[in-house]
Design a protein that fits this description.
This protein is α/β, with parallel strands linked by helices and 643 residues long. 49% of the residues lie in helices and 13% in strands. It binds iron/sulfur cluster. Iron/sulfur cluster binds next to helix 7 and helix 11.
Length: 643
Amino acid sequence: MSGEAESAGLALADVFAEDGPLANALAAYRPRAGQFELAAAIDECLGSGTDLVAEAATGTGKTLAYLVPVLLRGERTIISTGTLNLQDQLYARDLPLALRALGLERKVALLKGRSNYLCLHRLDKHGNDPEVAEGAVGEELQMVRRWARHTVSGEISELDDIPTRSPVWPLVTSTQDNCLGGECEQLADCHLLRARRQAQEADIVVVNHHLLFADMALKQTGFGEVLPGAGAVVIDEAHQVPETAMRFFSRGVSAWQLRELGADTLRAAGQASGALKLLMAPVQNLRTALDQAVSECLTLPQRGEFSALTACLPHFASLRRALQALVAALEPLAEQSRDLGNAAQRAAVLEEGLGDFLAGREGYVRWFANRRGRFALNLTPLDVAGPLRQLRERVPATWIMTSATLAVAGRFDHFTRRLGLDDARERVIESPFDYPEQTRLWLPEGLPDPGSRDHVDQLLSQVLPVLRAAGGRAFLLFTSHRALRRAADWLRAHSDFQLLVQEDAPRPVLLRRFRESPGSLLLGAASFWEGVDVPGRELSVVVIDKLPFAAPDDPVLEATLKAVRESGGNPFAEVQLPQAVLALKQGAGRLIRQADDFGVLVLGDPRLVTRPYGKLFLRSLPPMTPVQSGAEAARFIKDRLST
Ligand code: SF4
């Protein structure tokens, strides 16, 4: 019997058994009840076509729990992860391992967003432009040209000598705006198109959330459907889906897009006879109107609601008129060349986006982001359940959503309601870790209100003995950059610890230094609360300053709360509280990453005991053993570190 045939006859329980194929393939494999429970639930849902929402605690082994039933069933499946790193890991490590263990062969493809692939059309365009080639990015452009001659995948991550933020990348990758799609003369060699073709032919396609949602729009760009015929869609890190969906279903226009449009229009006009004469003035008028709008926006805050734009509105109206004039000037020229056709299409889309933003739309919040006048005007839907239902209808598959943090005290309503998952089955898989034995939870007493000036100082003065007992090895997670800076100042004044502070270096650099120097403390804000994995005794203490309620000045959140209030709901209970509970679970989840980890979690927010909702947070955390004092917490760490 072939390996494939043998596997086809394998029962799920056999695969996860102590002497099963996973045990044979993985030296460290141990059967875990939770892993099998999740795999069985997924298998059942795949079989019956029922959607599933499952929280699987850290340590469950959820990747194999969904890969095994998916591979055994053999249906075409899309697997979506939260980040590029996780995508690479799944594609290069977990999937080959599972296939090998099961003795199966499946066509597997990795598909990333378009900005990850070299665009040959743009490379040609900019590579031959002396202004760019001799400018600041000239050297990097040469590197890209040399690499372009031999790359097979065209994935720009291959060229890791060039920083990901280098200004050369936007010049040699495409956006939905500037891609020529079916009109492109490089279509036959296009890396992006090749990757999409491979994805269309594959049994298993590994994508990320943004790309998954972007597929809806891709259907309108001439590339055709990328994710057709999937029998199942597995979404890992599903807690990120509501935010990603909200971002994706947003519309709008930015100063950067308008500037690019002007530059690309003139470049296209220069290559078509007579076009430059007709387009020079409208582009110049657009640039003048844009400059005026940008200078008016200089004094705006970094983010805000539409109502804060009163002074800018006349400038946006002029900008729209200039854009309309450009649309009108481009229209009769669109047939002259592919680039002009593309510019005409983009100008029309941006004009519509600006028009929608200025007019407003029922059910959408209008807000702006601003960086030194470079504005982005956004129209974001408050309800993503509707568009997501449409997405699910277009990919009529079984949807499996899983994450380590989805449930609030065992319930999923906040998540399923937001995503319109009305009939999904729900499952919570408990952690295999022995939290009561491996962890201690300490809530320091007598701390002032978390909004008060000296909250951080008082918290740190209580926590310092625990940090000393651990000899560093701690993450200090803050809900604001202000608190983070204050904590760094306090610790510099009161201790000799090596401090690794979020604002001083990129996240991977800080994490590397943290792992390499066990005596250090890492101080982080938002980006360290999730997706950070430091197993082992290098991380033995996690301190969280406050309950992570989202900033009330976020215009989208504000509008969401208002909408819930106006429809008779309770915005705090339905939105703010569940979001904060999940964020706290994420932050606390940094502490225990494997079965032999141990550590202390310190929560410095007195509201955990003074407010009724505090219990909900505590009930949502893993079952850690509470301690009454810092001395007890310090003793625990010292004892564990000495063994
Ligand atoms: S089809 Fe689009 S991405 Fe591909 S080479 Fe052409 S412009 Fe670039």
